[in-house]
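Handoff note, outgoing to incoming analyst
You'll be picking up this chain. Sequence as last confirmed:
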Amino acid sequence: MIKAKKSLGQNFLTDRNVLETIVNTAEITNKTILEIGPGTGNLTSFILKKNPKKVFVIEKDNDLAENLKNIFANQLTIINDDVLNIDENLLFEDTVTVFGNLPYNISTEILSKWIVNLKDNFWFDHLILMFQKEVADRIVAKFNTSAYGRLSILSNWKLNVQKICDIKPESFSPRPKIDSSLLLFSPKKDFYKIKDPKNLEKITRVFFSHRRKMLKKPFNQLFNGDQKVIEKLKINLNLRPQNLDFDTYYELTREYESLGS
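Most recent structure output, in case you need it:
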């Protein structure tokens, strides 16, 4: 009997209706699929029914990886490793569709890693990912709202993000104490060209380190009070970090990068 491990943030999705919703979020027949954290293989079974071209799964837990091997035999390529150790840009020949009931304790780390490491030729066509609802709300948040912040700005840089549905604790075993949300991410055709995504991480980290304070202090810290940047981007330094929209943060990052060139 397979038991969920708290240390790995495991909550196995068992609700058939939710599993159906997830696999129907994107067309996957004859597509290459990557599933993150398949656990006991409940979603994997639904994916295989859709006749994908190939299915890769990344499962860190040795016992679960062995169990998947016994259940699905040669239907999957099982990668028994931590997803944070893997460079997805090198793993696939085809563009893949990604499914993941992400461990709550590292979900934002996984998403941030993927976004920061994205090349202009995307290795995926869709990310269909489950998060703790509170995290999902931060990802889809718009500016001028309390949930808006670093995660929203980073996620919406190269990706369109859409909430598909919320999922109640009783859909899982063991039951988590919080609600979850399913999000769909797809590549944007047009996005701000930034030389190094780590600069976007830095800009948002500095600005949102004091999210209730006015913009003046973080702006001066990064730009040394450069009046030209203020005039060019029409920034009111009396506003707070949540009052600047996505595009302003991307433009600020480009201005920051131009300082060093």
